[in-house]
Specification:
alpha/beta; 12 helices; globular
């Protein structure tokens, strides 16, 4: 109660609503989200809680500016739930889903940047192969890249079908996994997610009050590696008094009731 908390990834305010209830009327929630489509519904949900909050449209890489704009030197708690939200996945018009056919877009901020389709049209095979390896550890990157780089895809389904036909020897399960990895790699590139995460990790110690805590949820190895290294570097430099010894994972019961939580890993750190 009474603390200042930040939710770097507002979404539809699931985490933010719970944080806002816990800090109470004497606390404050600051929340950011790249996707402006989330803000009206999230704001309505937070308003119903009845405690003070500020919701901002923007990338969490700009967190220092957001805090300064609110007249704050730091926060007591910062939470970031990385990756794409369930609401984005379930909307076929956004182009994130492997299962739902739609335009090959994948932008978290629909008003900025280039779509995944535009990225594929302009990228060279060597660059695409490197991107697939870096962003999703795709083992078939060098085979896939020449088949989809420089090509035009009208929809998510068209891209998925080309990936599967390029690797005909894969069984259905492995083929589906490869499609998901390619979609993941494209999404990360389209939204420059790794760069934003690395910027956030650099800024985090300065954005936390003494003794403040940060928790970050990741959903694949590229994210988790960066968070682990960032926290370890902060610990070595004396910026963090404590960091997670190992990741926290969802229980079997949680994975059963919420299958999308399966790959989640949580790491935390405490400011010195």
């Amino acid at each position: 109660p009474g603390q200042t908390v930040v939710d770097c990834t507002l979404g539809f305010a699931g985490h933010s609503s719970e944080l806002l209830r816990r800090v109470g009327p004497t606390g404050l929630l600051i929340a950011t989200d790249m996707d402006s489509n989330h803000l009206p519904r999230a704001t309505e949900k937070l308003t119903a809680v009845g405690n003070p909050f500020h919701a901002h449209h923007g990338n969490f890489a700009g967190l220092p500016q957001v805090l300064a704009g609110a007249g704050l030197n730091g926060a007591d708690l910062i939470l970031a739930d990385l990756g794409v939200s369930s609401m984005q996945i379930d909307d076929p018009t956004r182009g994130f889903s492997v299962k739902l056919d739609g335009p090959l877009d994948m932008r978290m901020n629909p008003q900025r940047g280039q779509s995944a389709a535009a990225l594929l049209q302009r990228i060279k095979p060597d660059a695409l192969a490197a991107m697939l390896i870096e962003n999703s550890d795709e083992p078939h990157a060098t085979t896939l890249a020449p088949a989809i780089a420089g090509k035009s895809f009208a929809s998510t389904r068209a891209l998925a079908e080309t990936i599967r036909t390029t690797l005909p020897r894969l069984n259905k399960e492995d083929g589906d996994l490869t499609v998901r990895r390619v979609f993941q790699a494209l999404r990360i590139a389209v939204n420059d997610e790794f760069s934003a995460l690395e910027t956030l990790l650099r800024h985090l110690p300065a954005c936390l009050n003494p003794g403040g805590r940060v928790a970050i949820l990741t959903f694949h190895s590229g994210e988790d590696r960066r968070v682990k290294k960032g926290f370890e570097a902060g610990s070595r430099d004396g910026l963090y008094a404590e960091i997670a010894d190992e990741v926290l994972r969802p229980s079997a019961a949680e994975r059963n009731t919420n299958p999308r939580s399966g790959p989640a890993k949580l790491r935390w750190a405490k400011r010195a």
